[in-house]
Amino acid sequence: MSASRVGRATLKSAKGAAAAAAKPANAAPRTGAKKNKLKAAAPVYPEYTPALSKRAHPTLTDFHHHPPSTTTRMSPRVMTVLGVSALGLSAYIGYLYASYRREVTYSQNLSATVPATANVTDRYNTTARTFDADVEMSEKLMRLGAKRRDLCRRARGDVLEVSCGTGRNIEYYDFGPVRRGIVDERTGAVGLRGCRSVTFVDLSPQMVEMARRKFEEIYPGDDALRKRVEFRVEDAAAVGGGPSREITGAAVPGQPKQYFDTVVQTMGLCSLPDPVGTLRHLGTLVDPQKGEILLLEHGRSHYAWLNRVLDNLAPAHADRHGCWWNRDIGEIVRESGLEVVEEKRWHFGTTWKYVLRPARKAVE
């Protein structure tokens, strides 16, 4: 064999050995490669699982086995009910707005004939019989009964209630003997309580008669108590002196008591033609040293938008009910010169409570 042929054979053997070394151990033999290529099974690739952050919840790695959906679709019946409710609510709001605009127009037309200084107290003569029914629902919703009770429980001694109306405060007075006790259950304040006598005053004869009947219904047959109560048709601005001898039992003729111990007025400043002057006058009717004036009123709010509503409807409301519900009670109290002992407000600031007493400077 020639040298060149030997060299080629050696080179061929070396290439074959290198190829065999590079071939994987589990590789199929090359014999019948074409036949094996046809029969070879399709390669199996591992399932792809995306890499997630270590903070990811383990269940997020299962993208191929989703749990059944728990989303509940709204039934057609529920959708119908909601749709009808929304339609009814929008219609009601539209009705309220239309009624408000109509009332504002009516009120503006009245503003020329019923100015803010007009005396509308005569309206109570016609509304006396239905007054309690007209205000019952609104007072319950606003819980004014509890506020009336807390105010009247503070009254003591000889009491004067002006603008008594139909007597909505009668049931809240403590007609027991004057004694020391808790006058405010929430704060535990202690003071004198119990009413020796109560004088009810209102400008409307019809209102006074309704109050008298209500007293008879609450305390039927109580002759002893009836002697300590008096009902008078009188202007609050003209009430003079203290309680009459008939209800105080004064033993010395010509020496009646000069002052009341407490003056009460609830929802009355709104209807008085001169609220500042009347309140100043009430300050002269109580004991200069220990007397108190108790007020529960309604008037202007904390909020400008609500005050606009009150102002827009005030003439119409006053013409129907004899009440100017947009008065600034705080300003009236300040102008009266009385000393403020306590002040509270509720219902967006429209309900006012005051405990007042004569100014100390005036006493000195």
From TrEMBL:
- List the molecular function annotations (GO) for this entry: methyltransferase activity
Transmembrane annotation, as ranges: 78-98
Q: What is this protein called?
A: Methyltransferase domain-containing protein
* Keyword set, alphabetical order: Membrane, Transmembrane, Transmembrane helix
List the Gene3D superfamilies hit by this protein, alphabetically: Vaccinia Virus protein VP39
InterPro entries in the cross-refs: Methyltransf_Superfamily, SAM-dependent_MTases_sf
Q: Which Pfam families match?
A: Methyltransf_23
Q: Which portions of the chain have biased composition (kind: Low complexity)?
A: 18-31
Biological classification of the source: Eukaryota, Fungi, Dikarya, Ascomycota, Pezizomycotina
Sequence segments annotated as region (Disordered)? 18-38
